[in-house]
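Two proteins, back to back. First:
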Amino acid sequence: MRILRIFFIALLLAGTGGAFAQADDASPAQQIDDLRGQLDQVEKTMKDEHIEDSTIDDLRGKSTGIASDAQKLSSSLQQGRDAAKARLDQLGPAPAAGTKEAPELASARKDAQKAFDAVDAQVKQADAIALEAQQTANQLAELRRTRFQETISRRTNSPLSRPFWSEPAAAFPRDSANLRAFADGVKQDIAESWTAGNRVALITCVLLGLLLMTGVRLYIEHRVRQLTANRMPPGRLRRSALILGIALTSTLTTGLGTQLIYLGLNWNETFSSDTDEVVRALVRLVFFGAFIAGLGRALLSPKRPSWRLPAIPDETADALRRFPMAISLSVVLFVFLRELNRAIGTSLSITVVTTSLQAVVFTTLTAFALLRLGRTHHHDTDGTPPAPRPIWASLFIAAAWIAIAASWIGLLTGFIAFAAFIAGQVVWTAIVIASTYLAMRLVDDLFETLLSEKGPMSARAQAVFGTHPKLLDQAGVLLSGIVRLGLFLFGLTAVVSGFGAGASDILALGGKLQSLKIYNVELKPSQILTSIALFFLGLLAVRVVKNWMSEQYLPRTNLDPGMRSSLTTLLGYVGIVIVVAIALLAMGLSVQNVAWVASALSVGIGFGLQAIVQNFISGLILLAERPVKVGDWVVLDDAEGDIRRINVRATEIQVSDRSTIIVPNSSFITKPVRNMTMANPQGRVLIKLPMPLDCDPVDVRQHMLDAMQGHASVQPTPAPSVTLDNIDRAAMTFAATCYVGSPRDVGNVKSDLLFDIIARLRGADIPLLRPQDLVLRSGGNMGDMIGPTGAGAPKASTDPDPSA
């Protein structure tokens, strides 16, 4: 099963490319000889008839590394060959026969040809090694697939047949004798360890190992709970860190305790090679089994629901609490039996029986766990439906049932290896999913805690870079997504590695996906990642420069605040355009490609994006010509107020009721706009006051002037003035005019002046204009009135007849 190799597959992924890198100080000829020797060794090893699967995977990694190093060497030599070729072309071809030339020129041409031939031969050798190494890797891949298919397709006797049981019974005496001989060897090795003068070391290591697996483990788990509860910031990170701490504590204390016991028994290296190999395998299995048990116990947390990381009910956690330990013991037992069978050389029939038993135990445990899980996923007593499972969980459960059925069918039909493989893959996939889930949750909680609005880095980032807290949250989500993607690919690699595809297959697939060509545009993952990094770094640089200009440089100039805001906004737009251009160039898109894309988009712009482009260009015109700027008081149609912000597409105007009107930028270009503060920021207050005809106009004028001159907001220049605007039969109208510092103050000042003028006029007993009274007088006889009376009025057709 290659537990350790699969468990540490990340190290293999990181090291296959550089394991056979050539030294920088080696000459090209030495590097070629070194690569040839490595490739010959790989080809020699692959011809071994008893080669193991793990060795095949390692050889494939070596072959891929050799091919990569050879290609790099060929690329580095290509420059030298081009230079030698240019030198040779510069000297020209050799003269025709019978033609003399200077000896120096002939000697230089000869040396140039010799140099070109030498470097050309090295390039061809490197290319040949790269091609041969790639072919060798393909052969190894085919050999690995063939062996895997042969293994799982090998058919033996069915458990329903008599030979399945009779053959192990016949081979039992020989196998039991081998087992007794191995057991006697183990006893002798242990006895020799006891009598070899290391009793103190043996007893100490055993006691320390047992103490580490019991008391120390409990103490460390208690300390982990205290640290996560008291030292870590509040949030979900406490739970995920606690679960990870418990899982690692269980793994390390149990595994290290077993390792201490092994060191005590083999203190003076008294174990034989067979005993040492089996015991070492057992120690590694205990490590892995402790990880399985600790991970399952930590994730389920049946006794402490508040610690539980996955969103599963208490009933489900209680029903599944025994399965992690059962699966852990089963994995340790059957993998150890396989190592033991290999060590003592048991018969094929016994190996088939133990493999069948492994398939039965694994599938039975998995089936019982799925049944328990299904029974707990039901409606509550009040009829409330259960929470829906994630799609991936439902798919895994369905695939697990299919795998269990396939395993039992293979077991009953005699395909024992296939049945054991399917059963083992179900368990292995469940372990990988649980580990990946814990890692993803830990990453999410870590970035959420560090890069949240209330996190410890929020205040520092906002002080240093001037970033908005929401932007920090977005960065945390983005980084979390990138790391989660890497963890998902790691888990996928671990799962796929059990199906006969090793890390080399993943690397080969990645090599095929290293270049994607779309409409003559070649896109590479490395260039795309570089482009994304440059884009975000460029945006950060633009933000830093904008903050520096708006807070440091521009306030020290003579520019008004509106102009400073416009310049900062325009700089931001220019910076974003430059950053996007740099990102596109880093992605591999040339200027011609960008022009091609722009021409292709022009059709869409012509049909659907006219308004957006028009507003965008209008916004640039507003920022350049500045007919209006931030802080101006404008009147546009029904909108009147302050300009708060000029964006790319629209401008924000704050009106008197504190609401904001979003006006498209094109309206400021195509419609008449009244800018109250463009040439003169002052506001004019105009008051028209009608007064009775019998009042003294000079006295009224003086009171109005006194009121305006006594107001603190009225500007002395231009001076306030009062004119007699109109006289009619009812009243004479005074027009008072004064100026204030801003049009925004006109309404308030006008109201204050009206209150003050009315108070002054009443205090001086000057009457204000009152509406005319209508007086009706009665007298005389109604008969004297001209016109018909009620009796003499003409009769209508609808009036009743009095004679009737």
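And the second protein:
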Amino acid sequence: MPEQNPLPFPDPAPGTPAPSAAPVPAAQGTQDGAAAPVEHTVPERAGSQPPAPGRGQPPARRPWWARLLGRLADPWLDLKLEPAELPVPDADDRRLVCYVLEDYGLSNALILDKACRQAGLPSPLVPLPGDPLGRKRAYLALSRRNAAPLIPDQRPAARTHSDSLAKLLQAHRADPTLNVHLVPVSIFVGRAPDRASGWFSVLFSENWALVGRFRRALAILLNGRDTLVRFAEPISLRESVAEGLEPERTVRKLQRVLRAHFRRIRAAIIGPDLSTRRLLVDKVLAADTVREAIADQARRDSSKLAEAWKKAHAYAWEIAADYSHPTVRSASFVLTPVWNKIYRGVLVHHLDKLKEAAPGHEVVYVPCHRSHMDYLLLSYLLYERGIVPPHIAAGINLNLPVVGTILRKGGAFFMRRSFRGNPLYSAVFTEYVAQLVSGGYSLEYFIEGGRSRTGRLLQPKGGMIAMTLRAYLRQPTRPVLFQPVYIGYEKLMEGNSYLDELSGKPKEKESIWSLLWGIPKVLRSNYGQVVVNFGEPIRLDEVLAQRAPDWDGRPVSEDEKPAWLADTVDALAQQIQINVNGAADVNPINLLALALLSTPKHAMGERDLLAQIALSRTLLAEIPYSDRFTVTPHSPQEIIAHGEEIGVLERVPHPLGDVLRVDGENAVLLSYFRNNVVHLFTASSWIACCFQHNRRMSRRTLVRLGRTVYPFLQAELFLPWSEDEFAERVERIADVFVREGLLQQANDDDGGILQRNQGQSDEVFRLRAIGHTLQQAFERYYIAISVLVKNGPGTLGAAELESLCQLAAQRLSLLYAPAAPEFFDKSLFRSFIQKLREMKLVWPDQNSKLLFDERLDVWAKDAKMILGRELRHTIERVSPEAARSEPAEAPAD
């Protein structure tokens, strides 16, 4: 069964009043979206409360040695306390708190005492009332650092449980009124030194080794000013005793759950206990599936088993990461000034929600893929905020000299673009991923397969998801959490190369020289601000409960192929993309692109541009897309100023008012940023499109047509709503348009007629600009329908239809109006055709040719209400027919 949270943290009793609190600033915290001091809600000290009956003696002072050593240690310690709201036990006397540490040590006691004083909590160096521990203190630990024995053969006596914990439990059995709360506290010295710290301090950072006193002292001297102290929720010992277990079993149970808690927190903060690369490779090669693949390879090659084993070993060595904590720490020192140089800031939202959900889970980060910076940026942010960087699946093209080694030591493992025709490589790679999953390593991979060149999310590829799912099913002990991540840029480092590729030039191969030559240019550039939003996580257990209700939680061997596996992978991939889109960020460049690209010459008067930006912000605020998307707080005037500052906008002075525009090359790049957020305006753009060529339309027709077209928009843009939910959004946004004056409610009997203004008013102009974002999608749909109808049923296969649609779109772009590069993207036509097949509007015959009936004509008739007559005529005229071979002439006699 999946591992559950073993700590029985109690909820406060209903109706119990919260203790009075006062905000006290703590050392260097970070809140989502901005750097600011964290304010801990700190309970008032016990002395300010009325004493509990029978335990009203004034609190004892800390011992003299603690006060002396505390003063000596203070200059070397700077603590960061987590969480922001520190736990307060629900007890009559808040002095009845006993802290639990992972291991004993004088340094840990002093750090804990400083943290408690800083937060206003009871001191651990003052005994509990009545001193049930009998040691004049209020903390205990699960292990201790034992000194080396004086006699080589002498071993310390085996300990079966904590004596202090046993005494505390026994005191509860002897005194029914006693109720001490255990508060587990994790201490990490040197978790995040700043860039002023020397590299030498990295060697003494926190890890899984239980170090001795001398090494711990050096760690505090070098890294003590970057110490993290994390408090957990309190545990009531009275409730533990009330379970009625035998004394020995109660102690063992508490110790077990506490150890599991400390392991989970340590793994979340500094990562799993890493084995060496060599040991992990040995595990991969020893797996049954890999040994079978080695034997099969030897038979295919007619070679010796040892030679096939060497080939498998080379594959594993090529793939495997070589994670190095000192390398990661050193890279953080280097990257910090780089981010500050090239970016105006990196904002993070909803990371706190990930921290709440992650403990006890195998976390798989699945970000959108926009830039090569994605790899470094996400790992850096996680590390700087106290979360272990994930192991990242990277393309083999990045395994460059020197760079590849650094990436590998930062947690990157490399994969080839295709496994086809190489079963041995496939077996080795699959087993390597399985070892990472079973070992508790967090993972990161990009399910789009490559960087998006258009700014849209690409259709997902299920390979890595399938490997993760099979690895979990093989050993379902640790629940898996998929964490979608949206990364939004204002300017791309790869912008020029994307522009070349979109214009038809082949993709340039990565090389170490191109990387080195590009560094000076990057460091001289201003790339604006970056936003990283963490979307709604997806728990694999919940997906399996929905998609595979017959699975009983037992391991599934590699040979088994459950019928539900493929559908589960596809559904999971789609949900990940939906949740990535749900965490989108709308930055100033997105809003400028949405407005300016809606005009033929990509230019607007300043007043019109301000009004269009304000309308977009109103739509996002009135009808929010989700609870995780974010919008820039800047005003329209600040947005325009920012666009000019980073070189996106050009201002042309004019006596009748300045004109703001973008040139042709920048316009293509701006389409990338428009496409980042086009899904947020789907419903509003749909309404606007319906009034491009219609002055009046009933609400009923507006909603009916919306339901018809929505499945295709949903498949293309990864939208989260059902048809009913989309229809509801259309109704609500129509009301906003009426309120803003873009539409009017006609005075008819049923009040269901909407109409736009006549002529070329400002309201008509703004409505047309909103509709432009979806106009080309409907043009693509009509192209596909037109090509199908023109060629007739049973003539074209799916691949032929894709190619003809692409040719028609390219020609339409040349004849009618320039279009964004994705307009003739074959993959978008492929997605539309696949959706037609899913909806049974087209279907293949025995020769894989597509058939259709009169329902397609009905669909095309509805499309005529959206597209203008001239455009429809042009599309029908440029729609090509498939080349038909002429019948061969009969041979002459």
